[in-house]
Amino acid sequence: MSEATMPTAISYKVPKRRHPVLQFMVQQPLGAAGLVIIVLMGVCAAFAPWVSPYDPLAVDYGAMLAPPSAEHWLGTDSFGRDVLSRVIYGARTALAIGFIASFLGSTVGAVIGVASAYFGGKTDLIIQGIMDVLLSFPIIVLAITVVAVLGNNVVLGLDVNLIIAIAIPMLPRVERVVRASALAIRELPYIDAARAAGYSHTRIIFRHIIPNVVAPYLIMLTAFVAQAILSEASLSFLGLGVTEPTPSWGLMLSGSAADFYQQAPWMIVFPGIAISLGVFAFNLFGDSLRDWLDPKIKI
Amino acid sequence: MLRYTIHRILLMIPTLLGVAILVFFLLRLMPGDPVATMLLGDAGGANISKEVVEAERARLGLDKPLYIQFFKWMGGVLQGDFGYSMWTGQPVIYEIGIRLELSLQVAIMATILAVLLALPLGTLSAIFKDTWIDQSIRVFSIAGLAVPSFWLGMIVILLLLTYFSWIPPLTFTSIWENPWENISQLIWPALAVGYRYSAVATRMMRSSILEVLQEDYIRTARAKGVMERLVVARHAMRNAMLPVVTVIGLEFAFLIGGLVVTEQVFNLNGIGKLFVQAVARSDFTMIQALVLLVAVFFVLINFVIDMLYALLDPRIRYR
Predict the structure, then answer these.
(1) Interface check A280 vs B, CB under 8 A
(2) Which domain range does residue A206 map to?
(3) DSSP-assigned beta bridge partners for residue A155
(4) What's the CATH code of the domain at A142?
(5) Does residue A65 lie within any of the structural domains?
(6) ipTM associated with this complex
(7) Nearest chain B alpha carbon to A274
(8) A283 neighbourhood in chain B, CB within 8 Å
(9) Cα–Cα dist B269/A217, whole Å
(10) CA atoms within 13 A on the CB side of B280
């Protein structure tokens, strides 16, 4: 409705329509804070070679285990590598794997969910059975099992199998939420109308159902970026994820870091803060996005 | 109620069978071969004849067709025999048995900690919605979702080391031998994995109480002059418990996942460490048994939650 059509005699305030992004920022300050952190991390990750003070792989035996100082803001590790530079490059790994894995998991999950809800009957029963099987694994246990089965397969600097392992545990979780939304939509009169008009399954699914499950899909997508960052860190920490010398937050905490608890606590503190901050930002943003788009969805 | 119970029990069978099939066949697809991993580990890969490898494969039953291997394994599992570890040669049951107590104890302690924190915090947060109390509890709980439990464990160790020169002990004391020492050893890993747990439960408690406070019977109670404290304690909290019970139950199973990583940090020789080792060594029988164990655990907990639901909420029983 535009302002011109409002009767002029009634003088109540017509809320001004702001840009949705601006509207989100004003209504959800916490979510906006999360978004700011995400954008900052994204910029650091994208421009890592210019932002980071050192080469993250450069070994300097003269400066091993150096405490935080003017030259090395966050200190150095047991090979004399600059921790700040490694944290910045680690953001690259975390965000790339986080986004790709979450996009993959949520998209495939959503497609299965919509199909399951739309076709119903036996298809639905079989899909739900498979999803129940996948759901009976804790996220990290399933990811470890998949890593064990697939091994490593690095393409363009990213471990494709690791991404798949992180994405698979998301499938049943996204599928459930999207299926529930799609089931509710399937019962609405306009779907009946579309069927009566003789539209094809594909057209009904793509034109009438999918646009209406975009909200839960987006919410799950953001929430699962956080989960993916956490999974990547855990797997790398266990030595099953990203491998040396690629900088990864989880990897920085594993191995030699634990031997230097007292000599070099900065090796433990900073990568962990980076993981927590990343996950925190995405959780905050995802939460606010849910409140903003559709408060009834439970993740 | 009996029909409902039987129905729920029957529903568990296909899920568990699915888990068994999935794990068994997926593992057989993997490129790593347990025999190769084992023999290469022993002799550095040098001069191992083909005959030795074949003999070893035959001994482990890996030379038979997959479906025969599967039925042999399933047959054993149904009789409580999970086979022998392909790495240590000990019965899988024995290897798991000696570690189960430790992991289970940490999980239970973490649950107790989490519930003790979550119920009051969640309720306070809901009652004082949008005040500084609510805001700080929300920040505390959303941070709990962000901090990885293994890193929290490392920070706990770092602090204890710095201020009390405490290091994670190399051996674990059973609670039956020396309860005090046992608890002082395990309280820290329980805290590390319990924080996230309590955060999830606190959030659920908050939103659940907020939802219940909107109900008609709360308005009725207030209208007839019941004290606000009693409205919350008697009318709201009790009815808000249902979703919280679910979350506590579900997260208990996921605690095992958190333990997998956190046990490494605290040097605990539990189920999680066993699982990571088994994966690194391609110990098929061990991975199968552990995954099945976790799945059984998870499905059973789901069953108990459903039963609790039916007990707590009579409407579900007659559906």
Answers:
(1) yes
(2) 86-293
(3) A158
(4) 1.10.3720.10
(5) no
(6) 0.82
(7) B147
(8) 142, 145-146
(9) 40
(10) 12
- DSSP characters over A33-76: HHHHHHHHHHHHHHTHHHHSSS-TT---GGGTTPPS-SSSTT-B
Window B:211-270, CB contacts with A under 8 Å: 253-254, 256-258, 260-261, 264-265
CA distance B140 to B129: 15
Q: Do B276 and A234 count as a contact with CB atoms less than 8 A apart?
A: no
B242-297 confidence digits (pLDDT tens)? 778 878 877 877 787 788 888 888 888 888 888 888 888 778 888 888 888 888 88
Is A72 inside a domain boundary?
no
Cβ <8 Å between A149 and B254: no
Place of tokens 């799609």: A182
Which pTM does this prediction carry?
0.83
Q: Is residue A95 part of a domain?
A: yes
| B86 in reach of chain A (CB within 8 A) | no
User: Which chain A residues are within 8 Å of B156, Cβ to Cβ?
Assistant: none
Cβ of A138 within 8 Å of Cβ of B253? The answer is: yes
Contact B298/A138, CB-based, under 8 Å?
yes
For chain A, what is the domain count? 1
Task: Determine the Cα–Cα distance for residues B191 and B314; give it in Å rounded to an integer.
Answer: 36
- The token pair at B200 is 């999830």
For A154, phi and psi rounded to 5 degrees?
-85, 120
pLDDT in tens, A44-67: 888 888 877 777 777 777 777 777
The answer to whether residue A37 is domain-embedded is no
